[in-house]
Design brief:
alpha/beta, two-stranded antiparallel ribbon
Length: 253
């Protein structure tokens, strides 16, 4: 349904500008939190030309009726970027972990900074970010920072030879199997959203969406196309802010 997002992203990515440079990395204090600017960009500017070429080979961007695809894209852009039906706050969830069958609850892990992205095995950018987020996770202690993936909907189910083995899952068991295979691409915990994608819906159905929740449970960032570099910048800033005593006039050193 959202293949046009990839088409548009690839077409405009030739500008060669890193997504980090197109996003305002500054922050602003509220009464309860240090908040970062949203990055609701629908372009894949976080990737090099070679990265995008590699991802393009995995999908068939001309498979769907273009008019139908464009109408659906406009609808979803309005829903997310214009806020229709999207409540921009932390939405609690308790989801099974693909690797060991345990349950992870967001509210049960307050006191830690939590960063997560939505992904799936047929989502080329999420596959690439899995490795980058795995490397990022090595930088932080788990008692202070938790990074993980929520396995959401399939971005390109059944597409081309790479993804023909992954049509839309018809059961929780099948979706769990996809998630377990996706988990092998890195070393991050992979939580599995339900077949109804309730968690994905609650957070706005952004393609490869990324979110940051602070120690108190405030949603302090949301964006499309997860970028490990942005997440690192925000986590480092939050850690310095907490260490400084959470001052309102905070300036990172």
């Amino acid at each position: 349904m959202r293949l046009i997002l990839l088409i548009t992203s690839i077409a405009l990515s030739v500008q060669g500008r890193a997504q980090l440079n197109n996003w305002d990395p500054s922050w602003y204090p509220t009464d309860t939190a240090l908040v970062f600017h949203d990055d609701l960009d629908y372009y894949l500017n976080a990737y090099s030309k070679s990265d995008i070429k590699k991802m393009r080979k995995q999908v068939n961007i001309w498979r769907m009726n273009f008019d139908k695809l464009m109408r659906q894209t406009i609808k979803e852009l309005r829903t997310y970027s214009e806020g229709g039906g999207m409540d921009p706050r932390t939405h609690d969830f308790s989801l099974p972990v693909a690797q060991d069958g345990s349950t992870y609850s967001l509210s049960a892990n307050e006191g830690r900074i939590r960063g997560f992205m939505f992904g799936s095995i047929t989502n080329p950018p999420a596959r690439m970010q899995m490795e980058r987020w795995t490397q990022l996770a090595k930088k932080y202690g788990k008692d202070e920072v938790q990074l993980f993936v929520i396995y959401g909907d399939e971005l390109h189910p059944g597409d081309k030879k790479e993804f023909k083995a992954y049509p839309l899952p018809k059961s929780e068991h099948e979706k769990m199997a996809y998630a377990q295979e996706f988990a092998q691409l890195g070393k991050l915990p992979v939580l599995v959203d339900g077949l109804n994608d309730a968690t994905f819906d609650a957070y706005g159905r952004a393609p490869n969406g990324a979110y940051l929740v602070d120690k108190e449970g405030n949603l302090v960032f949301r964006g499309t196309w997860a970028d490990a570099r942005k997440m690192e910048h925000m986590i480092d800033t939050l850690l310095k802010w907490y260490k400084a005593g959470k001052p309102k006039g905070f300036v990172a050193q």
